[in-house]
Amino acid sequence: MIGDVIGKPGRVALEQHLPAIRDERGIDFVTANGENLAGGMGLTVSTAEALFAAGVDVITSGNHIWDKREIYAFLDQSDRVLRPLNYGTHDVPGRGWATYHALDGSELAVVNPQGRTYMQPIDNPFTDADRLLDEASEPLPPIRLVDFHCEITSEKNALGLYLDGRVSAVVGTHTHVVTGDERILPKGTAYQSDLGMTGPLWSVIGFDPKTVFRGSSTPCRPGSRWVTDRSCSTPARSTWTPRRAVPSRSSGCSGSSRSRGAVPPGASSR
To answer: Which of 15, 69, 127, 190 has its CA 20 to 30 A from that of 242?
Structure first.
C-alpha cells in the first residue's frame, strides 16, 4: 500500500521503481493513493492510467478526487479508482470499495473511508464501515485493506482499533508525512497512522517551498494548513458546490478550501 503520490515527481518515481520492487519482493497486489497525482491536485484519466501501467492495481483517493471534473465519469466506469466510501451513494459518482483478485489468485477487498475532523462533515466512517462489514448481502473476502484518508492521527488510531480483528490492515493517508507507529493491533490488524507521500524530497508535503514561504508571509490568520501562490483574498474554487457552507479553520485564505476539498451535491453533510 502506497501513500499519496504527488504530481509528476511521484508518478515518475513509481514508474522507475515500482516494477522492479514488485518483481524482487513477489508483491501480488498494490494500492496507491492518487488524489494529488494530476499537477498536485486531483486525478485525471491519463494520470490514473499511467499509475496502472507502472504496476498499481487500485487507486484510492480522498477529498481532492473531485478537483478534476474529467474523472467523474471514469469513477463510474472503472472499479480500479475508488472515491471515499462515506460520501454516500445518491448522485455521487463512483464507489468507495470493491473486491479484486491479486496475482496469486487471492480475492481481497479495498475500502476507502474518509475522516471528518477538520475535513468535510460527510457521513460517519465508523458506521459506514459497520454497514459494509456487517450488513453486506455477501461477506467481504477475508483479506480487507483499508486506506483511511484522514487529517488527524487520533481519528485514524480510533478507526484502526475499531476495525481491529475485522480487517487485515488500516493505513492512513492525507497528511503526506510518514509516521513511525506501524504495528500489529491486539486482534491482528496491521496499522500505520500515515504512509507518507511519494513525491519531491525537498518540498513542503510535496509542494514548492517558495510558494509556502510566500504564502506564510501574507497577513492570513494563523492555522491555514495549505498555502498557495494565490492571494489570500481570492478563495479557491471547487468543481463541486457544497450543499451548505462549511466553516473554515482559516476564513478568507485560499488554502483552507483546498485542504477540505469539495462535497458532491448528493452527499449528506452530517
So the answer is: 127
- Taking the C-alpha atoms of residue 34 and residue 75, their distance in angstroms, rounded to an integer, is 13
- pLDDT at residue 99 above 80? yes
Calpha distance 235→109 (Å, rounded)? 38
**What confidence category does residue 119 fall into, taking pLDDT thresholds of 50, 70 and 90?**
very high
Lowest mean pLDDT among 14-18, 60-64, 241-245: 241-245
pLDDT tens-digit series, residues 162-216: 999 999 999 999 999 999 999 999 999 999 999 999 988 888 888 788 877 776 6
CA distances from 113 to 12, 83, 141, 154 (A): 27, 8, 18, 15
Q: Which residues are catalytic?
A: 64
Distance, C-alpha 39 to centroid of its chain = 16
Its pTM stands at: 0.80
Domain extents in the chain: 2-198
* Residue 167: strand pairing partners: 164
Q: What pLDDT, on the 0 to 100 scale, is given for residue 199?
A: 87
Query: In whole angstroms, how large is the CA radius of gyration of the chain?
Result: 18
